[in-house]
Amino acid sequence: MKNRNYAKECPKCGGKDIGFGKQSGYATMSTANKMSLGSNIEFVLCTDCGYIIESYVAKPEKFKGTIM
Ligand SMILES: [Zn+2]
Fold it and tell me: Can you tell me the distance from the alpha carbon of 10 to that of 27, in angstroms, rounded to the nearest whole number?
C-alpha cells in the first residue's frame, strides 16, 4: 500500500498484527453517476479479530466531480 499512514494497531482488540486486504471484481465501489467502472477497495484489517480498521478506494481520483 502506497504512502498511507495506516493504523498500526487494532482499536478493538489492541492487536498489532495488521494485514491488508483487497476487494475487487463485482465488489467494486462505483461512482454514483455510473459513468465509470468504479474502483477496487483496499482494507487495513486486524488479523487477530478480523476488524476492518480502514478502507480505501484504490483510485479516489475517479470519484472527483461526482457530486451532483
Ligand atoms: Zn483486532
Answer: 24
| Å from CA of 17 to ligand 1 middle | 8
Q: 14-39 pLDDT, tens per residue? A: 999 999 998 776 667 777 666 566 78
> Distance from the CA of 41 to the center of ligand 1, in angstroms?
20
Show the beta-strand stretches assigned E in the chain.
18-23, 41-46, 52-57
Query: If you measure from the C-alpha of residue 20 to the centroid of ligand 1, how many angstroms do you get, rounded to a whole number?
Result: 13
- The full set of domain ranges for the chain reads 1-59
> Is residue 65 helix, strand or coil?
coil
First-to-final CA distance of the chain: 30
Could you read off the pLDDT of 43-57 as tens digits, one per residue? Answer: 999 999 999 999 998
